[in-house]
Every structure is written in C-alpha cells, then in structure tokens.
Design brief:
7-stranded antiparallel sheet, single chain, mainly beta, 13% helix
C-alpha cells in the first residue's frame, strides 16, 4: 500500500546561496552557497527520488507510472499524466537574486513546449532588513522599462516590499520579481524551470563571466501594471487551517497546531504535500501506521490516503498544498 513519501532533497549551488540548507546534504560541512533545495520535483533531469520505505530509490515519474491516480489523484493524472505538476522548494538568499519574470502557459507552450510558472512565496524566516521586489511601483510600459534596463536602474521602478517571517506573496506569471538578501523562502510553483532573467546587478562568476539575460524573450510577457497586492499573513489561530493562496495551479494552506489534528480528504481528488516550517509532528495514517516529520522536512501524501492524524511532538507550523 502507498504511504507518505519523503524524497532526497536536490540541492542547487548558486552564487547567491548561503548555508541554511547545508544540513540537508550528506556532507554538510563541505557545502557552500546552497541557494535552493528542491524538495519535490518532477522536472526532467531533476526528478525527486524516494528516500525511505519499500519504494526508496524510485523517482517520482516512475511512481506515477505505476500508481497513477492513487498517488496524484485521478483528475490530476488525467490532466498531467506522469509529469508531477508542482515544484516545491526552499530558497536561501544570502545575496539578491536576479530580477526575473516567468511566461504563462500559452507562451511557455509555444516557445518551450512546457508549462508556464505561477508561484507563491512563504517567508519562513527573514533578516531585519529583508525585502522582496514584486511588480512595478507605478504604471509602466515597454519603453520606460527598456530605458531603465539600458541605464542599469531597473530597481527604481519596481515595488520593494519589506518582509518578515510569516508573510506570503502570490506571484502570477508575468510579474517581474526578485527574492532579495536575507530571505528564507518556501516556494510553491508550477512544474517549470523556465526563467527569463532581466537584470543581475552586473555580477560575474568566479571566471569573470556575467550571466545571460533574456531581454527579448521577457519583454512581451511582462505585466507592466502597478502592483497593488501586498503580503498575505495568516492569523495564526491555533489548530485551525487557514487558506493562503488558491489558484488554478495549487492551493496552499497554513496550519499552526499544538494538539492532535484530524485531516479528512474524501472530497479532494489530489495528492497533499506538507512542508514542516516549525516544530515536529507524527503523521498517522492507515489507522495505526505513522511517519515522524521534523522541521524542514517535506512529505507527499498519496491521494489514496484520506484520513490523517497529525500529532505534534512540539508546537508545529506547516504548509498544506494540493490541487483543487
């Protein structure tokens, strides 16, 4: 029978990464500049592999081929086949990331035969002066945008949002954005690795090379409207599930709990993902079977498991993610 699945994190070393994700490595003392931990990935060449139980060593695509709707939900399987539809990450920004934009499904299909990228960020931790860049701070347009690129002053017309732990932001495809220094982010996004890099502060790698920019590809997918939406913050009411973001691609909820919580998914035709942000808990399933979950771990609950009990071993916070 299927059981809650943990996967070996896929760690990404980048010039802007830090040390907060090093503990996920087999050799943490050797790791430097880890920017991302791909917790659950169906991206080709980066397929997540099960780390525990009798399915250990199998990748996510192989599991879907065998278990189909039992794993991901019948509706999800009919739409996406063996491609897992979400990419789940932690991001540790020790420096500012490049300013980017992602195409929507239509453009991504035409240009790359892929899905677009709508995403959301949950600020799992933040330094006192941390901020994000999200959209434009006024109505803009192609001409002004290109002028700012040419003069290396693009950040002047972007909206800077100060952040603190617990803030959540929805980033639809077409929104210019950047995660900045001091942010530790849980990211939920469509399965897509398509990024158009607009601006990278003139940085170079250790060989002195600048990173590729995608000005021509990016310009006609950008939403130039003034960004109005700010942070979404959960109320944090104990033992009550709160919806943060719900869109065509995913729903993400927040739960803070200090006692046993029962979750029933009989009306949901989807897998469920838990990202443990704080504390630890025991996930009880199939009446008497259980899986321990620690802070920083991510668990995929197969769609066939419909009644779950969450037993905190310490006051706990988690994100609950699925497709409606």
């Amino acid at each position: 029978m299927l059981y809650p699945l943990k996967f070996t994190p896929i760690l990404k070393q980048v010039i802007w990464g830090g040390r907060k994700l090093a503990y996920k490595s087999q050799y943490p003392e050797r790791e430097v500049s880890i920017g991302e931990s791909w917790e659950i990935s169906g991206v080709q060449e980066n397929l997540s592999v099960v780390s525990e139980g009798f399915l250990a060593g199998n990748n996510l695509e192989e599991l879907i081929e065998v278990y189909m709707g039992e794993l991901v939900g019948d509706k999800v399987y009919e739409k996406f086949g063996v491609e897992f539809p979400l990419l789940i990450k932690y991001i540790d920004a020790c420096q500012d990331l490049s300013i980017q934009v992602h195409p929507n499904d239509t453009v991504a299909k035409e240009r790359h035969n892929a899905y677009g990228k709508t995403e959301m960020w949950y600020v799992a931790d933040a330094e006192s002066d941390a901020h994000l860049l999200i959209g434009f701070n006024k109505e803009s347009g192609k001409s002004e945008y290109l002028d700012k690129l040419q003069s290396n002053t693009l950040p002047e017309i972007l909206r800077s949002e100060a952040v603190r732990k617990g803030d959540c932001f929805f980033i639809p495809a077409g929104t210019v954005h950047a995660i900045c220094k001091g942010c530790f982010i849980a990211e939920i996004q469509q399965t897509s690795d398509i990024t158009y890099r607009l601006y990278d502060y003139g940085r170079t790698d250790k060989e002195g090379n600048t990173r590729e920019l995608h000005t021509e590809l990016a310009t006609d997918v950008i939403d130039f409207r003034k960004q109005e939406a700010g942070a979404i913050r959960p109320a944090g009411t104990p033992n009550r599930t709160e919806e943060l973001v719900s869109c065509d691609y995913f729903t993400t909820n927040y739960l803070r709990f200090d006692r046993e919580v029962e979750k029933e998914y009989f009306d949901l035709d989807s897998f469920v993902i838990y990202m443990c942000l704080e504390g630890s808990f025991t996930l009880v399933y199939d009446t008497d079977k259980s899986v321990p979950v620690q802070k920083g771990e991510t668990v995929l609950l197969p769609a066939v498991l419909k009644t779950i009990f969450l037993l905190p071993t310490a006051a706990c916070e988690l994100l609950e993610i699925y497709i409606r």
